Amino acid sequence: MYIPKPYREDDTATLVEFMRANSFATLVSTLDGQLWASHVPLVVAVQDGVVTLSGHLAKPNPHWHGFDAAESLVIFSGPHAYVSPSLYEKRESVPTWNYIAVHAYGVPRAVRYDQAPERVQAMLEGMIDQYDAAYQAQWQSLSDKFRHGMMSGVVGFEIAVTRLEGKYKLSQNRSEADQQHVAHAMLHSVDPAAQGVGEAMQQRQQG
User: Fold this and answer.
1) Confidence tier at 25 by pLDDT (50, 70, 90)
2) CA–CA gap between residue 160 and residue 120 (Å, rounded)
């Protein structure tokens, strides 16, 4: 990802916090010489300084056949908004777009129910804990036949992240006055995404 120096974010804790807050990500891999993308919810964990991502795909999705062989890219996207040059002090300025994005790289390792049932069950229950904890009791009360059928219908995966890239493009290349004008406009926008950009800008300015 192209990241000019003012926009680069290298703090792992900051990036992990962002990934957890925006955990519906785009997984991009190569399969038979072609790019494949799947949109998936992920669980982001950190253990012994290593960031790991886990999730699953429907078994009929051929994407998982590209696992275990090569590096994949996982794209986490956050708030974004158009920035009008009318917000700048200098009239001769160009329009742009503010946004936050994090790219994570690593080799996905497939986890199949017929090979590692305990791991697939633990992965699914970890996802339930994150996204719908109140459903956990109902999940445990379902028949073994139904739960086994559900787990047999997916292929889990885990990615040990080998590289993280964070881009926080929030008008850092502009003057302090321009940044304040843009943040104010975003915070008062009717667009929730623009409001999110404004909040991120405000946090950066106050930090």
Assistant:
1) very high
2) 17
